[in-house]
UniProtKB/TrEMBL annotation:
This is ABC transporter. Pfam families: ABC-3 (PF00950). It comes from the Bacteria. It comes from Petrotoga mexicana DSM 14811. The keyword Ion transport does not apply. The chain crosses the membrane at residues 12-31, 63-80, 92-112, 132-150, 162-185, 191-212, 219-239, 245-262. It is a multi-pass membrane protein. GO terms for biological process: response to zinc ion; transmembrane transport. The keyword Hydrolase does not apply. It is found in: Cell membrane; Membrane. GO terms for cellular component: ATP-binding cassette (ABC) transporter complex.
Amino acid sequence: MIDILSYPFMRYALIGAILSGFGSALLSNFIVLKKMEFIGNGAAHVAFGAIAFALYFGLNMNLLSIIVAIIFAITIHQLGKKERVQENSVIGMLLSLSMAIGIILLSFKKGYVPEIDSFLFGDVLMITQEDLILLGIFDLLILFIVIFLNKELKYYSFNQRLSKIFGVPTNIINLLFLTITSVTIVVSVKIIGIILITALLITPGVIAKLYAKSINQMLIISVIVGVFSSVLGIFLSYYLNVPSGPMIVLTMFLIFLIAYLLRKTVLKSFAQ
């Protein structure tokens, strides 16, 4: 335990895992309830295009990724409001477009681009102080939104049309939710990777839904699961000498499997 904390990059990795696990877990509840799992995949692949663009032109990767994530969210929101265009269809098109642009730009670069593997699968060695600051800022923003827009998010998650009747500004909430989710994904890709980031945005919410009787309970359970599995995954990846991203996902899935198999037993014991 002590030796892992003696390395600065591992301290950064653990802090990054806690921050990404916390923010993603909070969002995962609303993603699961809204059945918007595809947005995680879409935003992650859009991040690939932004990263490739930044690598090719030598731009600030974090800044460009955040800008692209915001544009992605606004585009989904605007086109998704049209009767004949579904949000998932828009996400699918933008996902493919961004991947295509990214692959074309990388094909122009001579030789192998090692950074891409790190972004695809996650690499704790790449985490910087700037990444941690960004993760911390967006975690606080997510927490602020969840606390102060708790009622609005509940209505929005269960029935968007019904929420309009109760005076919830669904358009603003939807745009805000899409934006914060997309940005959280792009600033978390260094921890877990573009290909695997979706697991961090779905699994904690799914596990929480197995046991929780309210959204507030879901929020608490999902955060515990998200942070615990992320930190445990980092420790296991260090001691087993395997990539951190896949190890976090594997850890999270094993927790889900245990939670699913023990669900009836645990709920019975609490009922007595």
